[in-house]
Amino acid sequence: MATGIDPFRSTSYEISEAIAPTWEARRADIEEVSAPAREWMLRELRPRSGDTVLELAAGVGETGFDAATRLGERGRLISTDLSPSMLDAARRRGVELGVSNVEYRLVDAQQIELDTDSVDGVLCRFGYMLMADPAAALSETRRVLRQGGRLTLAVWGAPERNPFFGLIGISLGQRGHVPPLEPPPAPGLFSMASAERTSALLRDAGFGDAHTEEVQVHFDLPDVDEYLSVVADTAGPVALTLRSLSAAELAAVKADVDDSIAGFATTSGYELPGVVLCAVAS
Most buried by CB count within 10 Å: which residue of 6, 145, 199, 245? Predict the structure, then answer.
């Protein structure tokens, strides 16, 4: 268990450690869904040869590795996460890709242990929304960015436009397995779904120029069993809740999902649409 951090951060640490092995195993699936957001972030970041780029809450590091290929031998990617297991997974992926201009660090994004004005760009995909204090994390991000440096981020859009999470969340909530979803500013998947709130957080952190854009994604799933498996492998606290259910409880949840997912049926299974809110700021 992590030490020296508050209870929420400790819980986040434990969740990340618990799902790191299955997150790593699902890397290709995650990246297939996330590709439009990753491509948007890299296009807007505009990394140049020789730059230093910091990735926060990197998970297995795929977004940062894509940036690293554009930085050249003189450039550097700093790939970071709060979870040692996630960072180890990123290190393995970096070796697999043959990316050599990477430094791996354990970093709490709300207290970044880097010098002021020390990086040219920052990436954070699906990270800020889960942090106890995204305002502090964004202020720290602004502090370490050099003048003219750019931040690109991605967070999930409105829950009603992301049924991949909504279908399971409704069932688990109605059956009393999870508490009701807390509205922002409580941290969670949808805590930064509002473009207005995300833009305000960026302004308050000292970013003078910010732009948000919705990016469409989709989840292709062959059947409900695979849907539940993906959720149990990747969906943070929801994953751990799903793993903890008895066989009877899981069967009841599956029956709920069978009913609610029917409207997304295709000839090969199911396609669930999704919306990611992306932002660039400098």
Answer: 145
